Amino acid sequence: MNSRFEGKVALVAGGTGGLGRAVTLAFFEEGATVVVTYRRQEELDALKIAAGAAAGRLEAFAIDVTDEAAVRQLIEKILAKHRRLDAVVNTVGGYAGGMKLWELETKVFDQMLALNLRSGYALSRAVVRPMLKQGHGSIVNVASKAALDHAAGAAAYAASKAAAVAMIDSLAADLQGTGVRVNSILPSIIDTEANRRAMPKADFSKWPKPQDIARVILFLCSEEAKVIHGAAIPVFGDS
């Protein structure tokens, strides 16, 4: 077992979902204590089973990470217990598409901004100060290939993901030279159960696997990636 994260604490927002679960399990494999946020009890139960003996290093909180107050309270709890927070990975997000801009309901647009932009905003605001105080830390925000590739029928989704990349890029400039690093990753459609159900006729073989993306995320959170800061890294191969 690689022990890059032995004795370290990671927060995985959305850590029981398709990608989040893979990231959480990858952190466990490398020795970390992992705090996850979740919304569905059945996903948390499945994660505990998959974690096996490592479930003793799992802490879970059912919160809405677009709620700044709730996120702030969560970070305070983590720091009060562990006195450190080494990595934060935001896998929270949502997709709405297939509608032309003029057909899009404003509430859907607002939902995309909340899930894909505000989540990263709330998490970053809450964790940056503690990380600056401890002199180190890594934040990885999951954006999307759609941040760069603005397809028809996906205006709200593409706009929210593009804004998320811009936000993290600007935050990276704010944090230059502090020891706290922030980066984005840009997946395409990820090979999860939910996406397979949504697109049953798609060629799943072309979709990146959650486990492969998780390895990139852990690399970015590790000391091996100490020279990578302010990057937006494609993780969709040739798909």
- Report the CATH topology name: Rossmann fold
Strand-residue proportion: 5-15%
State the share of residues found in helices, binned by percent.
40-55%
Q: How would a crystallographer describe the biggest sheet?
A: 7 strands, parallel
Q: What would your notes on this structure say?
A:
- With 239 residues, this protein is of the alpha/beta class.
- It has a single domain, classed as NAD(P)-binding Rossmann-like Domain (Rossmann fold, 3-Layer(aba) Sandwich).
- 44% of the residues lie in helices and 14% in strands.
- A seven-stranded parallel beta sheet has the order 3-2-1-4-5-6-7, with helices on both faces.
- Strand 2 (33-37), helix 2 and strand 3 form a beta-alpha-beta unit.
Quick gist of this model?
By secondary structure, this protein is an alpha/beta fold. The chain is built from seven helices and seven strands, in the order βαβαβαβαβαβααβ.
